[in-house]
Amino acid sequence: MSPEVREKIQALFDVKGLRMTRPREVILEAAFSDPGDHFTADELFDKARSIDTKTSRATLYRTIALLVEGGLLHEIDLGKGVTSYDPNFIDSPHHNHLICIDCSKVVEFEDQHISVLEDCITRRLGFTPASKSIQIKARCDELRRTGQCASLRERG
Q1: Which residues contact 85 (CB under 8 A, 6 or more apart)?
Q2: The pTM is what?
Q3: Pairing of β 82-86 and β 96-100
Q4: How many of the other CB atoms lie within 10 Å of CB of 82?
Q5: Which one, of 70, 83, 89, lies nearest residue 32 by Cα?
Q6: Which residue has the higher pLDDT, 27 or 3?
């Protein structure tokens, strides 16, 4: 976990009047150890339990809710009833997501042109951008071309 992420988490805990307990520390370590890694609550629970088997689901869900409320984790609706969490908005606040509707793979990307377009659209319509979330849902070219997809093979 980067020092910047740690500072923002501590600031959130201070504002909320919360102590940094060992169970919370384990969950935070699991969530922010790889900022490019998107995860479901169940995946985070498994990762946290691999660090400390005493991690509880209740603490995990309360911590996730706190981090989402504080803007340190972002929910991503992958469709098919799957909600993932993205810990990378602290280090890379302007990234977007391409989501494969075949295999649910999530690819992060940034594009300067999208930021300009967002600004133009909101200003033209009389608004000032406060936040944004762009998701492009697409089909996997590899699966269409070959009938197989590396992401599906990894999950299977």
Answers
A1: 31, 38, 39, 40, 41, 44, 64, 67, 68, 73, 74, 75, 76
A2: 0.71
A3: unpaired
A4: 11
A5: 89
A6: 27
- CA Rg, the chain, in Å? 18
Question: Dihedral through CA 29, CA 34, CA 37, CA 39, nearest 10?
Answer: -10
Rounded (5°) CA angle 31-38-57:
50
Q: Strand, coil or helix: what is 11? A: helix
82-86 vs 74-79, strand pairing mode: antiparallel
CA distance 142 to 122: 35
65-90, pLDDT tens digit by residue?
999 998 888 888 766 677 888 887 66
The arrangement of strands across the sheet holding 96-100 comes to 106-109, 96-100, 135-138
Closest CA to 75 of 42, 109, 41: 41
Rounded Cα–Cα distance for residues 17 and 9 (Å): 12
Question: 3-state class of 137 per DSSP?
Answer: strand
Q: For residues 12 and 95, what is the distance between their CA atoms, to the nearest angstrom?
A: 22
- Outline where 17-149 has alpha helix (H): 22-32, 41-51, 57-69, 112-124, 141-146
